[in-house]
Design brief:
- By secondary structure, the protein is α/β, with parallel strands linked by helices.
- The chain contains 13 helices and 13 strands.
- The chain has helices at 11-18, 22-29, 37-50, 78-96, 114-121, 141-148, 173-188, 204-219, 236-249, 261-274, 288-296, 307-324, 345-356; strands spanning 67-74, 100-107, 129-132, 153-156, 168-171, 193-198, 225-226, 230-231, 253-258, 280-284, 301-304, 332-335, 338-340.
- The strands form two sheets. Strands 6, 7, 8, 9, 10, 11 and 13 form a seven-stranded mixed sheet that branches. A six-stranded parallel sheet has the order 2-1-3-4-5-12.
- Helix 1 crosses helix 2 (22-29), helix 1 (11-18) crosses helix 3 and helix 2 crosses helix 3 (37-50).
- The radius of gyration is 23 Å and the shape is elongated.
- The model is unreliable at 1-6 and 358-363 (pLDDT under 50).
């Protein structure tokens, strides 16, 4: 079967093509003993044909034991976390060849203590490192407890900068909030009333996006008027009900900035139910629901924050730290925020298809 473009070549794929074991491929690629010259040259030829690129982890990995990394992140919203989950799945497939196992630890973001409960219950002796997306409220003492036990912990998608985590990879929340403010200001030409929907109480990144939004309005001298905002606790139904109630009291609202996926979905549902196509939405994340809304004109712009790469890079970079003792020069590894409009929506949907290839949806 031909290899699809953008497919990452693994030892297993080379082994299947060459008709040998994964161990034989490993010995050939790393010039180890225990393989005859004919088999070695066959493996190297197949690897070159497939376009295999050596993994930096291979040269440093000790095979005396399995390295186990815990990936702690929410179980919903399903559409958004599918992308992060897919990135983690791909990293798990690649790292498995080198004796590195990823264990997913999921929790409900609707539970205010969900992340805390998971962090408190971790069996530290069973893991070599943790990558945490604590989207709900949490106590940094858990991060410090993990670090104090000599186990590295990093954050992805959401951060805990005041803790002893090593580094963070994900969206620059305040900067993306400023971007959202600029887009909505441009759409409305600086006139009218707007509101903001988000999980401000539980999630620091949402609060930072909220702050960035206001920061843009202040620095740009925008005349947009921000009226009372809506707390949705990552629940689309709460977001929808909150917006409908607000529009009953203040029907002349012209724009909504949603600082997360759940708020975006809820706002879209509310406007559909009310038939209010006159209200403009700027929200987050390219998923089935938000893409359909953007295409149908119920949403004006989406901010895309590389969720696949967040999951993939979090796992890979933590593994690199554990195996190679590598640490980035900066504690913040920011991924770009992209503006998705109707005109470029398909390129982002196709981009996802190219990255995932024929990966099986997990659950």
């Amino acid at each position: 079967m031909p290899i699809k473009p953008h497919t990452r070549i693994t030892l297993k794929m080379i082994a299947q093509k060459a008709g040998v074991s994964v161990g034989t491929v490993d010995r050939a690629l790393n010039n180890r003993a225990g393989i005859n010259e004919e088999s070695k040259q066959l493996v190297l030829s197949v690897a070159k044909t497939l376009g295999y690129k050596p993994n930096r982890l291979a040269s440093a990995l000790s095979r005396k034991r399995v390295v186990k990394i815990g990936m702690l992140y929410p179980d919903r919203p399903t559409d958004f976390y599918y992308d992060i989950d897919a990135g983690i799945n791909m990293a798990a497939e690649e790292l498995h060849d080198f004796g590195i196992m990823l264990e997913k630890i999921r929790y409900s973001p609707q539970d205010a203590t969900g992340a805390d409960t998971c962090l408190a219950a971790l069996d530290l002796q069973s893991f070599d490192g943790f990558a945490v997306n604590a989207a709900g409220s949490f106590e940094t003492r858990h991060f410090d407890r993990i670090a104090g036990a000599g186990i590295p912990v990093i954050t992805f998608n959401t951060d805990a900068p005041e803790s002893k985590r090593l580094f963070y990879i994900g969206n620059h929340s305040r900067e993306s909030g400023r971007l959202g403010g600029e887009i909505l200001d441009m759409i409305l030409r600086g006139e009218g009333s707007v509101t903001v929907i988000g999980n401000f109480a539980q999630s620091m990144p949402f609060l930072e996006r909220f702050s960035g939004f206001f920061e843009y309005l202040q620095l740009s001298a925008s005349t947009l008027r921000v009226i009372p905002c809506i707390e949705c606790r990552s629940d689309p139904m709460l977001a929808a009900d909150g917006l409908k109630n607000l529009l009953t009291q203040t029907p002349d609202i012209r724009g909504v900035f949603c600082v997360g996926h759940s708020g975006t979905v809820g706002a879209i549902n509310a406007l559909k139910e009310l038939g209010r196509r006159d209200i403009h939405i700027v929200g987050y994340d390219v998923t089935r629901q938000t893409a359909d809304a953007l295409r149908e004109g119920w949403c004006d712009a989406l901010l895309y924050q590389e969720p696949f790469d967040q999951g993939y890079q979090a796992a890979r970079l933590l593994a690199r730290h554990i195996i190679e003792n590598w640490t980035p020069e900066r504690a913040y590894l920011y991924l770009d925020t992209h503006v998705v409009l109707r005109s470029n929506l398909d390129s982002y949907l196709n981009r996802n298809a190219r990255v995932y290839g024929n990966m099986r949806r997990d659950g």
